[in-house]
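INFO batch 0412 | record 1 of 1 | parsing
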Amino acid sequence: MLNAFKETGLKFLALSLLLIIADQFSKIWIINNLALYADINVLPIFDITYVRNYGAAFSFLSDAGGWQHYFFTGIALVISVLLIYWMYKTPVKQTWLLAAYALILSGAIGNVMDRLNYGYVVDFLHFYYQDWHFPAFNIADMAISLGAGLLILDAIFEQKNSAQSENQSAENDSPKQVKK
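INFO prediction complete | emitting tokens
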């Protein structure tokens, strides 16, 4: 069983676990130390502000009546199972791809834990400039966003590497011209 972790991408589950722990501890701290909507100014463009998100990203469907709680939880659980399967199947040498899977997995599980424990997602990282405000988010959201970015980078570089490999293969397969 331990070989499955060493020889497959499942060893990246350690990254997921670390991020889930950081996410959950940060949310517990927020709940225990801040009143709802209270904020702590950290920088001129950044506050720690306790808000609750009953929907998905950017509070999408937050006022849909409650069914969205089960819908988003179900989607996150299905995606989590798929990500673990893909991590198992992905060769360990594909570190960017595996890190992306681990980041997305940790974010999905972190937010599902909130939905199951509280009925909402705890958000608290709030960036703004003058009258412009970016919706508050959390460590799980950051992990999902970074994972998505890594997926895009992996796809770009994988496509570039595949094209280079094909060019090298074509050059090696082409007949050599003999000089006369």
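INFO post-check: The longest strand covers residues 121-129.
INFO record closed
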